[in-house]
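Give me the fold.
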Amino acid sequence: MPLATLFDLRGRVAVVSGAASGMGRAMALALGEAGADLLLVDRDGEGAERTATTLRALGRRAEPAGVDVAEPAQIRQLFAQLDRSFGRLDFLGNVAGDARLGPPEQIDLSDVEWTWRNLVYGRFCCCQEAGRRMLAAGRGSIVNIGSLASLTALGRGHIAYSMAMGAVAQMTRELSTEWAGRGVRVNAILPAQVLNSGLEQRMAADPTLRDKFLSGIPAGRLGRPEDIGGLAVFLASDASSWITGALIPMDGGNLAANAGATIRRGSKAEGRVPSPGNQGQGEGSSMPHRPASA
């Protein structure tokens, strides 16, 4: 098969959550540029419509859906809308989800449950609905957005977030194992810090955070939403037909670097970075973190 054909998504349909902004929007736009039609999911219906407008200008079919991915009833309605409007599903990008932060000895259990519903329960429901359709068709690809917190501990009150992201990683492996033999691939992307309004606010509130994060990223910069585009197209396409169950870091080298590593900086590195050492383990993802109510 010609290389260009391997990455061609024309005639395929994708569902992407969190499509109004950040990595969800960037993923949706990249899939559209590769030829896919899209159902765009977000609680921010106006933002999803703006993404749809951009995609339509590319000649793609794009339809917004205002859905809270923590609510299974809304998710089931979403997939009914997919069946009516598109009649098929080739790719699911599970991007949306929120988390609440709080020290493990203080965080209220309701905040832990809220985080779990957003990052695990709702995502599994999306995977289940997508998987049923893909299994019936004998093909399909699912990508879950995890985090470096799927594999490593962060501290800083991330107990609920990290537990949930660990579950996302294991959900990805289990679904891959269950479905690979029937044509459905399931992978996860694990970002480090990717710039978004929530992360910018946290760094503005604590001026030490940017340098702390950058100290652990050998590539010398924070992530950008558009960094996900090529990887998403690859995992949605036939170019990755034998890749499933993978947890793929998107982190500028953060996960690979030892805590005592000496990181050499080029002239394009961002900010003033402490050296030596890899002190800033990234929590990743485009989702906002919210303080616990406790």
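DSSP finds nine helices and nine strands in the chain.
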